[in-house]
Amino acid sequence: MITRLTLLLAAALSLSSAFAETKKLLVVTVTTGFRHSSIETAEKVLAELGTKSGAFTVDFVHQPEGQPKNPGKPPVKGEKETDESFKAKQDAYSTALAKFNEDNKTWGDKIKAYMADKMAIDKIKDYDGFVFANTTGDLLFPDRDGFTKLIEGGKAFIAMHSGSDTYHPFRGYIDMLGGEFETHKAQVEIQPILHSPGHPITKAVPMGWKVFDEIYIIKSFDKAKVHGLLGLNAHPNEGTPGYFPVSWCKEYGAGRVYYNSLGHREDVWDPTWKEGTKDRKNSPEIAHTYQEMILAGIKWALKLEEGVSTPGNIP
Questions:
Q1: Distance of CA 158 to the CA centre of its chain
Q2: For residue range 256-284, what is the model confidence (pLDDT) as tens digits?
Q3: Could you tell me if residue 106 is inside a domain?
Q4: Range of the domain at 179
Q5: Which residue, among 247, 267, 254, has the nearest Cα to 301 in the 3D structure?
Q6: Would you call 308 helix, strand, or coil by DSSP?
Q7: How far is CA 39 from CA 140, 186, 191, in A?
Q8: 314 in a domain, yes or no?
């Protein structure tokens, strides 16, 4: 009887410990610049990864409604277009642009108030980590320096794709992340180099793995300061020699940072997106591998997984 009770107690304590160790992630998908269509897919996948793994729970800071639509580039006169017709287009564009600028100022004030509420340090300090899933622009945090200090103090930070196209003027964020978006060209298939095949984040990536996506050109990057995971030794589109990072991780004070520049396309995130249609460029297996990288990257950043992450491993 004593043995049975002891085993039951041990099982109960083990279960209790497992629940106690579940980490809390805050996923931010707010954008003040370009907004990716894959964001909703990313939100779904991140929530599923947390539920299925049992490693973390997910709360979201979603985009509030009402963002005005940019009218885009000014009209260009067609070869056979009359001056009168082109002037009408120019006038319509000017009117639309003026309205957008006015609405965008109101939107900016709304975002600032929204983020002051959602991202106040006192409200987010108990999260174990933060994910920027395809964020863009100035996110108007009420205390952006306080946010990076949370990471430096031991929190996890994970960013995908345009998480590097975020907070460009705030060098504290760029230094924490390890690089920033500069530009990109047409979507293309790449076969990235595996710099650290034994690392928990990339151990699921098979040799010769290929992926079709929008490949970022990164600036403000120092390979001596990060642990490289995926990269290219030539420009993804032009083929010119040079080093082009795709994914890395790094220590930041007592915290950990993981970045993966892939994730523009829905079919990189989700193996079921438009399955069997011509719109799908990546196989379900490619999306499964991406998900495994993201899950392992989150767990590594949360210190649930260990791996040698010494900087300077990129040749």
A1: 7
A2: 999 999 999 999 999 999 999 999 999 99
A3: no
A4: 20-70+117-301
A5: 254
A6: coil
A7: 19, 20, 24
A8: no
Residue type, 134: N
Q: Are 215 and 281 in contact (CB under 8 A)?
A: no
Chain segment 27-43, per-residue pLDDT in tens: 999 999 999 999 999 99
Q: Which residues of 280-297 are buried (b: 16+ CB within 10 A; e: fewer)?
A: bebeeebbebbbbbbbbb
Residue 165 domain-assigned? yes
* 183 found inside a domain: yes
pLDDT greater than 50 at residue 13: no
Q: Residue 223 carries which DSSP code?
A: G
Give the DSSP letter string of 87-119.
HHHHHHHHHHHHHHHHHHHHHHHHHHHHHHHHT
pLDDT in the model for residue 17:
40
Q: To 10 degrees, what angle do helices 39-53 and 284-301 make?
A: 70
pLDDT digits (tens, 9 = 90+) for 46-101: 999 999 999 999 999 999 998 898 999 999 999 999 999 999 999 999 999 999 99
Query: Would residue 54 be called left, alpha or beta, if left means φ above 0 and alpha means ψ between -120 and 50 degrees?
Result: left
Instruction: Using a cut of 0.85, tell me whether the model's pTM lies above it.
Output: yes
CA dist list (Å): 97 to 70, 78, 91, 108, 225: 7, 21, 10, 16, 42
Q: Is residue 217 exposed (0-12), middle (13-18) or buried (19+ Cβ within 10 Å)?
A: middle
Q: What is the CATH number of the domain that holds 202?
A: 3.40.50.880
